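Here is one record:
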Amino acid sequence: MAPRSAEPGYLVTKVVAVDADAGQNAWLSYQLLRATEPGLFAVALHSGEVRTSRPLTERDPSRQALVVVAEDNRKPPQSSMATLHELLVDGFSGGHVRLGDAPARQEQEPDGTVTVYLVVSLASISFLFLAAVVSLVVVKLHRSRRAEERYLPAV
């Protein structure tokens, strides 16, 4: 999140990447590949800091998507991309913290079939357990009555 009152140079976030190489091959560089509003954000080449590059206006969309690439120094270079979703807000309040309704989220719950299978399985197992307990009680009561009938004198 970034406030709409942010001045140019405001630190919005920082992208961090790690390379397992050593020496010169481990040097990483960062680059802003795509942005919802080009020219609004800039990424520092070696630190990965994402900063505002101009004042925010009311015409800037409140939801911003940035694609940042981290690339190592080997030949040929290897790279990795990260998509950042930023909210431009007038103030930091609890209402803006609800990130679950952001339309760009790709991670959705799978359809409810797994949940249905789990609920049906749990209900079946519970029913079988209850039936086993009731059967056990009935058998015990039946045996205890037989035992009483054996030892009681006939009237």
